[in-house]
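Need residues for this backbone.
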């Protein structure tokens, strides 16, 4: 996995949320610790992982936050430009979809989504078409995934992570090269589409007029609008 040299040199500060996968198989998380487009990565672990002490190996690489630190982490959530959930457990997926916030991953994912922070969900635990799982549960979890996907929330498989990240970086660079909305009187659908492509909230100066078409597009695409 590699990022194209054509991509922007934008460096992101990510928050890595680590859930305990139902399969018990963890992807090589060290990949994120050494990623060339990340700086000062921090991790938060689920209660299940805290009990296993597995976090000790990661604590040598980056700050690791425990579930009881959720409040302090939420208070500074704005310092992160990206949230990565890897691995995403089926339990956390269900809670995220249903709006249940009784766990550290659930609370942080919900708050990040509300703040318009891009969220990348690693979905290897989600049943595939050929999974030997009860068809009823297969439909349920696929529906959960469909419910949360869209807007600033992007599912990915570990092997394709860089292609998902590259799209965000490329679109963010393109957005940076576009004229700023600062000082604009009218915000149009094109402004919404640019923000959506970059997986960013649309920042709008106070007093601007947002066209009905722009508002409809923002609602359809899940683009949050923030007034400066």
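Answer:
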């Amino acid at each position: 996995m590699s990022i194209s040299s054509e991509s922007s040199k934008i460096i992101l500060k990510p928050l890595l949320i680590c859930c305990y996968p139902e399969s018990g198989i963890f992807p090589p998380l060290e990949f994120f610790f050494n990623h060339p487009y990340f700086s000062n990565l921090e991790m938060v672990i689920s209660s299940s992982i805290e009990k296993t002490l597995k976090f000790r190996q990661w604590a040598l690489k980056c700050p690791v936050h425990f579930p009881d630190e959720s409040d302090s982490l939420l208070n500074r959530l704005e310092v992160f430009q990206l949230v990565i959930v890897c691995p995403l457990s089926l339990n956390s997926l269900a809670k995220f979809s249903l709006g249940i916030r009784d766990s550290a991953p659930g609370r942080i994912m919900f708050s990040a989504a509300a703040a318009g922070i891009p969220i990348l969900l690693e979905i290897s635990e989600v049943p595939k078409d050929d999974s030997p799982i009860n068809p009823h549960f297969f439909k349920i979890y696929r529906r959960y995934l469909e419910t949360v996907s869209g807007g600033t929330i992007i599912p990915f498989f570990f092997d394709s992570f860089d292609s998902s990240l590259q799209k965000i970086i490329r679109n963010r660079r393109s957005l940076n090269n576009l004229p700023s909305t600062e000082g604009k009187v009218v915000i149009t659908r094109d402004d919404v589409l640019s923000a959506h492509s970059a997986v960013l909230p649309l920042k709008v100066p106070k007093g601007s007029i947002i066209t009905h078409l722009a508002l409809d597009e923002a609602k359809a695409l899940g683009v949050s609008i923030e007034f400066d």
